[in-house]
Amino acid sequence: MNLLFAIDSSFLRPLETTLLSIKMNTSRQASLHIYVIHGGSLGLDSVDGRSLSRYCEALDIIYTPILANSDEFSDAPVSERYPETIYYRLLAHRYLPNDLDRVLYLDADILCINDLSKLYNMVIDGDYYAAASHSRLTELTTVVNKVRLRSYESEGYFNSGVLLINLNLVRQRVHANDIYNYITTNKYNLLLPDQDVLNGLYGDKIKDIPDEIYNFDVRKIMTYQLISNGEWDLDWTIDHTVFLHFCGKEKPWFKKYRGRFDSLYKHYEHQSYRLNEKLNLEL
To answer: What InterPro entries does the entry give (predicted)?
Structure first.
């Protein structure tokens, strides 16, 4: 299975926690290969004296760093609000090997608590992507976003934090100039740049997947229980949900973070720290 991440140095430790949770909860028969796109300023193999490549090797995960070429974005609208990094997941097909037919992009503020294989192997032949819309959590916001981005034919406003990418189709039909032109034309309407672009240009080419399974917004656990008439409670979530997504500004690795899944995250985070300590002792 091919997994994609795009991070800077501030997300290295959370990425390690995410990877450990994936490894612990995915079938042992599954081969994992991660691709990490970065801008070159972070030195992914030497942050805090630790090596991401050694960490992945210890987890039996194949690791391929990808240095984004700034020259490829010379025509892209770039500013403090629209940094170069917003293009990494949208144009990842330009960096990934041509023999890959799909890749699963994940934000590094995600915890995997059940096997992701079913999502990864999902049939998406006619769609560019598969993603969760969170439409039942924020129905009014979804309508506003569709009007704002003029994406009337899409099924909802999709979250880009979990994105199964059909590389065969995306290579043919997702073009850098279309993305650049869309940002230039709509720059005053864009609130979440990469996510807005994804929905505005390709919202009708995204397969809707259930967010309570594949992109559970941890801030909305009470809403999930309400819309499911109490079925999607904490026990159900632990048994069925694949990805817990710690959306928003507050992150579970912050000392002052308090949330329903705080202890669960810290369990995986602690296991990740212990693995790093072991690797450092072996140096």
So the answer is: Glyco_trans_8 (IPR002495), Glycosyltrans_8_dom-fam (IPR050748), Nucleotide-diphossugar_trans (IPR029044)
Residues 6+ apart with CB under 8 A from 245: 107, 109, 110, 159, 161, 162, 215, 216, 217, 218
β-pair type (2-6, 102-106): parallel
Domain extents in the chain: 2-281
DSSP letters, 41-70, are SS-TTSBTTB-HHHHHHHTTEEEEEEE--G
- H/E stretch holding 5 reads strand 2-6
Tokens of 87: 């293009």
29 or 32: whose pLDDT is higher?
32
Region 27-42: mean pLDDT is: 85
What pTM, to 2 d.p., does this model score? 0.89
- Do residues 239 and 148 lie in contact, with contact meaning Cβ atoms separated by under 8 Å? no
Long-range contacts of 248-256 (CB under 8 A, 24+ apart): 248/219, 251/14, 251/109, 252/109, 252/111, 253/13, 253/14, 253/17
The closest alpha carbon to 109, from 183, 12, 33, belongs to 12
Q: Which two three-digit tokens encode residue 178?
A: 């279309």
User: Which residue from 14, 23, 18 is spatially nearest to 117, judged by alpha carbons?
Assistant: 23
The CATH number of domain 2-281, selected from 3.40.50.300, 3.40.30.10, 3.30.830.10, 3.90.550.10: 3.90.550.10
Per-residue DSSP letters for 111-174?
EE-S--HHHHT---TT-SEEE---TTT-HHHHHHHHHHHT-TTSSS---TTEEEEEHHHHHHH-
Residues 6+ apart with CB under 8 A from 35: 2, 3, 4, 5, 64, 65, 66, 92, 95, 96, 103
Q: How many Cβ atoms sit within 10 Å of the Cβ of residue 6?
A: 25
